[in-house]
Amino acid sequence: MRTHGVRCLLMGGQACVFYGAAEFSRDTDLVILASSENLDRFQAALSNLQAERIAVPPFEQDYLNRGHAVHFRCRRVDVAGMRVDVMAVMRGVAPFDDLWPRRTTIETADGDAFDLLSLPDLVLAKKTQRDKDWPMLRRLVEVHYLSNRENPTPDAVTFWLRELRSPVLLTEVVRAHAEVAQRALVERPLLGAAIAGDGAAIERALVDEEWRERDADRAYWQPLRAELERLRHGNR
Q1: What is the C-alpha separation between 84 and 73, in angstroms, rounded?
Q2: pLDDT per residue over 54-104, tens digit each?
Q3: Burial letters for 79-89: b for 16+ Cβ neighbours within 10 Å, e otherwise?
């Protein structure tokens, strides 16, 4: 992707590994700028990887802009079998033009650099109907909190109050940053239970919060899945 100048960001399980919340993944998940020029560069990268599309929908700008994912399988010998999934739009996640300037760039010891979805954006992208995403979402935020709580930035405190899913850690943050927590109540009412120190109420509220997101994601994907079914039948 870098060789061909593709503007894209790593997300999914491999991004979780970089952020210290390990998740094994055979897939490479990317969010991409869906401009004609950038998609041409991405197609050139796919050709270099000898990648073939393996499912509907077709690799077209219109489908990407409507929220579909497009799936490819690499055939080149050194990456044979690797799957690449690409999206341009995700529920509850900002447009790519906003994601790009706040990306995280990680450089390895041998000089390779990787552009990742920022941690707050990755957490938003993980709020799906899939069972496996919620433990990982919790782990991502906890790792960030435990690594940074001694020297927190205002943005970090806001992120923790908005996304932490551990009653114990959430109560700890609320007590350490009481004024910010009071202001954040409007956005996340369950902080009231954390302020009161009611662990059982926090647990119940977190479950309710999770299932609201799952239901919203299910509703978001319903028309997209119906469209995929029509495409599959049309192909047959």
Answers
A1: 6
A2: 999 999 999 999 999 999 999 999 999 999 999 999 999 999 999 999 999
A3: eeebebbbbbe
Model pTM above 0.90: yes
Half-sphere exposure for 25 (CA within 13 Å, toward CB): 22
At 225, the pLDDT band (50, 70, 90 cuts) reads: very high
CA atoms of 51 and 82, how far apart (whole Å): 9
The answer to whether 195 and 181 have CB atoms below 8 angstroms apart is yes
Tell me the C-alpha distance between 27 and 136, whole Å.
16
| Average pLDDT of the segment spanning 29-35 | 97
DSSP 137-164: HHHHHHHHHHHHTTS--HHHHHHHHHH-
Looking at 66-198, list the stretches that DSSP marks H as alpha helix, in order from N- to C-terminal side: 96-99, 119-125, 133-148, 154-163, 167-176, 178-184, 191-196
Look at residues 71, 75, 4, 62 and name the one whose alpha carbon lies nearest to residue 35: 62
Phi and psi at 185, nearest 5°, equal -55, -35
Q: DSSP letter for 7, please.
A: -
Query: Are the beta carbons of 37 and 99 closer than 8 angstroms?
Result: no
At 104, is the secondary structure helix, strand, or coil?
A: strand
Beta carbons within 10 angstroms of residue 205's beta carbon: 20
Count of other CB atoms within 10 angstroms of residue 218 = 12
